[in-house]
Task: inverse folding
């Protein structure tokens, strides 16, 4: 049994607690949450002991791991402190806004001999897993281009807090939603070389009305485009184009394949609890069964492209990813 503490009981932190109930190797026993009154009923319902601070959890020898569902600006200090205390770490995305900060966190965990797993849950979608297999297997031929979109109207209900801060959540919807697509691109195609990004902010809000668009050149020569809109109902699309065909993921379980001379074929895959799946993968990594399936190199490559996109939005011209990392 891996005894865990969770830091942050917002919407996503609570979702992780619920998902952990489907992974018998993980037991969340305590929760660090500033709003103790608002979290009291949830903690009672899930058998969580409210804890005043993360330091208390890190000093507790009965706690093996911490799950961080906190704002990214807190991640660096929290991850490094957890590593120093010998705790295994699961941290929600984004791990950081800067590639170098993320690299420092991975280094601290590596030196401490603990796992650092980053919660890019859409990697565990059955459709995205199938798309990676198709691309890796060469079924689409030489890959030429990728297109992606992630809109999420959850922001329509946000009228205050860190998600509206340009410092905490820069790039419009890129931080909260578009980063999922960017990570999907990296998982399929590897690191990006250059990014040209634009942010069109119609109104500051709240809720904000903005669009973020990216044109990406990958190291392997593939081109890509990405868009995200915070005010539009949920929409997901990752479409890979190759010389022998294309494959388009539309949601967790749906893919459309196209080949010359044939009607589009819609593939549907069995649904799964993706949050429970990533927590199971975390447990596997903690137990030494297999590495967490979101490698450090991919996390750093995604943040490199993300950082370049933010710089490009400010500069108004393309930014090379390696320059963004210096």
Result:
């Amino acid at each position: 049994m891996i005894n865990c503490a969770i830091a942050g009981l917002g919407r996503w932190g609570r979702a992780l607690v619920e998902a952990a109930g489907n992974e018998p190797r993980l037991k969340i026993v305590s929760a660090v949450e500033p709003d103790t009154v608002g979290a009291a009923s949830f903690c009672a319902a899930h058998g969580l002991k409210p804890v005043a601070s993360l330091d208390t959890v890190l000093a507790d020898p009965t706690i093996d791991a911490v799950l961080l569902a906190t704002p990214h600006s807190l991640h660096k200090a929290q991850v490094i402190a957890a590593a120093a205390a010998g705790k295994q770490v699961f941290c929600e995305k984004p791990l950081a806004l800067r590639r170098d900060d993320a690299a420092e966190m991975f280094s601290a965990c590596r030196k401490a001999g603990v796992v650092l797993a980053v919660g890019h849950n859409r990697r565990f979608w059955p459709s995205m897993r199938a798309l990676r297999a198709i691309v890796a297997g060469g079924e689409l031929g030489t890959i030429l281009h990728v297109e992606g979109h992630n809109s999420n109207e959850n922001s329509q209900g946000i009228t205050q807090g860190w998600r509206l801060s340009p410092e905490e959540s820069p790039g419009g919807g890129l931080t909260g939603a578009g980063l999922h697509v960017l990570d999907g691109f990296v998982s399929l195609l590897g690191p990006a070389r250059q990014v040209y990004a634009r942010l069109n902010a119609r109104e500051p809000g709240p809720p904000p009305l903005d669009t973020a668009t990216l044109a990406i050149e990958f190291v392997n020569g593939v081109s890509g485009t990405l868009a995200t809109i915070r005010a539009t109902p949920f929409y997901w699309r990752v479409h890979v184009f190759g010389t022998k065909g294309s494959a388009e993921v539309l949601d967790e379980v749906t893919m459309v394949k196209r080949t010359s001379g044939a009607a589009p074929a819609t593939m549907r895959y069995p649904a799964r609890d993706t949050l429970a799946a990533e927590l199971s993968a975390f447990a596997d990594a903690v137990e030494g069964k297999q590495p967490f399936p979101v490698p450090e190199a991919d996390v750093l490559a995604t943040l490199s492209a993300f950082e370049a996109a933010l710089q490009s939005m400010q500069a108004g011209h393309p930014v090379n990813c390696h320059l963004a990392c210096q």
Q: What stands out?
A: The radius of gyration is 20 Å. The first helix runs from residue 11 to 20. The longest strand covers residues 192-203. The chain has a mean pLDDT of 93.
